[in-house]
Amino acid sequence: MRFSLASLVLLSAIAIPAAAHASSIDNFTITDGTNILTFSLPSSPLHIDGSYPDNFFEINNVPAFYNGVSVNDGAVGFYTSDVGGGFIDAFFGNPYGGQYFTGDVLSPTFIPGIYAFNDGAGRDLGTITISSTPEPSSLFMLGTGILGLAGFGRRRFLKS
After folding, report:
1. Mean pLDDT along residues 64-71
2. Which of 62, 80, 86, 89 fits a 20 to 30 Å CA distance from 116?
Protein backbone atom coordinates (compact mmCIF):
# COMPACT_ATOMS: atom_id res chain seq x y z
CA MET A 1 0.00 0.00 0.00
CA ARG A 2 2.80 2.42 0.91
CA PHE A 3 4.56 1.81 -2.39
CA SER A 4 1.46 2.53 -4.46
CA LEU A 5 0.66 5.67 -2.43
CA ALA A 6 4.23 6.91 -2.84
CA SER A 7 4.10 6.19 -6.56
CA LEU A 8 0.81 8.07 -6.87
CA VAL A 9 2.17 11.10 -5.00
CA LEU A 10 5.33 11.17 -7.11
CA LEU A 11 3.39 10.81 -10.35
CA SER A 12 1.00 13.61 -9.31
CA ALA A 13 3.88 15.91 -8.38
CA ILE A 14 5.30 15.54 -11.88
CA ALA A 15 2.18 15.17 -14.02
CA ILE A 16 -0.12 17.86 -12.59
CA PRO A 17 2.23 20.83 -13.22
CA ALA A 18 3.00 19.51 -16.70
CA ALA A 19 -0.68 19.11 -17.56
CA ALA A 20 -1.54 22.56 -16.18
CA HIS A 21 1.14 24.29 -18.23
CA ALA A 22 -0.26 27.28 -20.05
CA SER A 23 1.45 29.43 -22.61
CA SER A 24 3.85 32.00 -21.28
CA ILE A 25 3.27 35.65 -22.05
CA ASP A 26 5.50 37.60 -24.43
CA ASN A 27 5.91 41.32 -23.80
CA PHE A 28 6.48 43.47 -26.89
CA THR A 29 8.23 46.84 -26.74
CA ILE A 30 8.51 48.78 -29.99
CA THR A 31 10.56 51.97 -30.04
CA ASP A 32 11.55 54.43 -32.74
CA GLY A 33 13.79 56.70 -30.68
CA THR A 34 11.02 58.96 -29.35
CA ASN A 35 7.87 56.81 -29.21
CA ILE A 36 7.27 53.56 -27.33
CA LEU A 37 4.47 51.07 -27.95
CA THR A 38 4.04 48.18 -25.51
CA PHE A 39 1.64 45.24 -25.50
CA SER A 40 1.53 41.59 -24.44
CA LEU A 41 0.45 38.47 -26.30
CA PRO A 42 0.57 34.75 -25.49
CA SER A 43 3.80 33.13 -26.68
CA SER A 44 1.76 30.78 -28.84
CA PRO A 45 -1.56 32.52 -29.58
CA LEU A 46 -4.49 30.11 -29.74
CA HIS A 47 -6.83 32.62 -31.32
CA ILE A 48 -5.88 34.20 -34.64
CA ASP A 49 -8.44 36.75 -35.90
CA GLY A 50 -7.32 36.73 -39.50
CA SER A 51 -4.68 35.14 -41.66
CA TYR A 52 -3.62 35.03 -45.25
CA PRO A 53 -2.14 31.89 -46.75
CA ASP A 54 1.42 31.22 -45.72
CA ASN A 55 2.59 34.68 -44.70
CA PHE A 56 0.39 36.85 -42.43
CA PHE A 57 -1.74 36.68 -39.29
CA GLU A 58 -3.56 39.28 -37.23
CA ILE A 59 -4.74 39.47 -33.62
CA ASN A 60 -7.48 41.99 -32.79
CA ASN A 61 -8.38 43.79 -29.55
CA VAL A 62 -4.82 43.92 -28.22
CA PRO A 63 -4.58 46.25 -25.19
CA ALA A 64 -1.59 48.54 -25.71
CA PHE A 65 0.23 51.53 -24.26
CA TYR A 66 1.64 54.25 -26.50
CA ASN A 67 4.17 56.46 -24.69
CA GLY A 68 2.76 55.20 -21.38
CA VAL A 69 -0.86 56.07 -22.20
CA SER A 70 -3.46 53.34 -22.63
CA VAL A 71 -4.77 53.33 -26.18
CA ASN A 72 -7.83 51.76 -27.75
CA ASP A 73 -7.50 48.04 -28.21
CA GLY A 74 -6.23 47.62 -31.74
CA ALA A 75 -5.05 45.00 -34.15
CA VAL A 76 -1.49 43.77 -34.48
CA GLY A 77 -0.36 41.76 -37.49
CA PHE A 78 2.80 39.80 -38.18
CA TYR A 79 4.07 38.56 -41.52
CA THR A 80 6.90 36.66 -43.07
CA SER A 81 8.57 37.12 -46.45
CA ASP A 82 11.56 35.98 -48.45
CA VAL A 83 13.71 38.70 -46.86
CA GLY A 84 12.58 38.42 -43.22
CA GLY A 85 9.33 39.52 -41.68
CA GLY A 86 7.62 42.42 -40.03
CA PHE A 87 4.62 43.66 -38.13
CA ILE A 88 1.68 45.93 -38.80
CA ASP A 89 0.05 48.26 -36.27
CA ALA A 90 -1.71 51.62 -36.15
CA PHE A 91 1.30 53.56 -34.82
CA PHE A 92 4.32 52.37 -36.79
CA GLY A 93 2.57 51.30 -39.97
CA ASN A 94 4.12 48.41 -41.84
CA PRO A 95 7.85 48.26 -41.05
CA TYR A 96 10.14 45.46 -42.17
CA GLY A 97 12.40 43.54 -39.82
CA GLY A 98 13.23 40.13 -38.52
CA GLN A 99 11.27 36.93 -38.43
CA TYR A 100 9.36 37.29 -35.15
CA PHE A 101 7.67 33.89 -35.05
CA THR A 102 8.16 30.23 -35.91
CA GLY A 103 5.53 27.84 -37.18
CA ASP A 104 2.83 28.69 -39.64
CA VAL A 105 0.41 31.62 -39.50
CA LEU A 106 -2.34 29.49 -37.92
CA SER A 107 -0.17 28.31 -34.99
CA PRO A 108 2.71 30.78 -34.52
CA THR A 109 5.15 30.87 -31.61
CA PHE A 110 6.96 34.17 -31.01
CA ILE A 111 10.76 34.20 -30.80
CA PRO A 112 12.10 36.32 -27.91
CA GLY A 113 14.87 38.72 -28.91
CA ILE A 114 15.72 42.26 -30.01
CA TYR A 115 15.13 43.05 -33.67
CA ALA A 116 15.80 46.16 -35.74
CA PHE A 117 13.11 47.25 -38.16
CA ASN A 118 13.29 49.53 -41.18
CA ASP A 119 11.10 51.23 -43.77
CA GLY A 120 11.81 48.73 -46.54
CA ALA A 121 14.35 51.04 -48.17
CA GLY A 122 17.01 50.21 -45.58
CA ARG A 123 16.49 53.22 -43.27
CA ASP A 124 16.45 52.09 -39.64
CA LEU A 125 13.27 53.04 -37.82
CA GLY A 126 13.78 51.44 -34.40
CA THR A 127 13.69 48.18 -32.51
CA ILE A 128 11.17 45.61 -31.38
CA THR A 129 11.96 43.66 -28.23
CA ILE A 130 10.12 40.43 -27.45
CA SER A 131 10.69 39.14 -23.91
CA SER A 132 9.08 36.05 -22.41
CA THR A 133 7.41 35.91 -18.98
CA PRO A 134 6.39 32.51 -17.57
CA GLU A 135 2.71 32.06 -16.83
CA PRO A 136 2.34 32.43 -13.02
CA SER A 137 0.03 29.51 -12.20
CA SER A 138 2.40 27.01 -13.81
CA LEU A 139 5.23 28.27 -11.62
CA PHE A 140 2.98 28.02 -8.56
CA MET A 141 1.99 24.46 -9.38
CA LEU A 142 5.60 23.45 -10.02
CA GLY A 143 6.61 24.98 -6.67
CA THR A 144 3.86 23.22 -4.75
CA GLY A 145 4.81 19.94 -6.42
CA ILE A 146 8.43 20.37 -5.33
CA LEU A 147 7.34 21.29 -1.78
CA GLY A 148 5.12 18.20 -1.70
CA LEU A 149 8.01 15.99 -2.73
CA ALA A 150 10.27 17.60 -0.13
CA GLY A 151 7.64 17.05 2.58
CA PHE A 152 7.12 13.46 1.52
CA GLY A 153 10.88 12.80 1.57
CA ARG A 154 11.28 14.45 4.97
CA ARG A 155 8.46 12.36 6.41
CA ARG A 156 10.03 9.15 5.09
CA PHE A 157 13.43 10.22 6.45
CA LEU A 158 12.06 10.94 9.95
CA LYS A 159 10.26 7.56 10.10
CA SER A 160 13.47 5.62 9.43
Report:
1. 90
2. 62
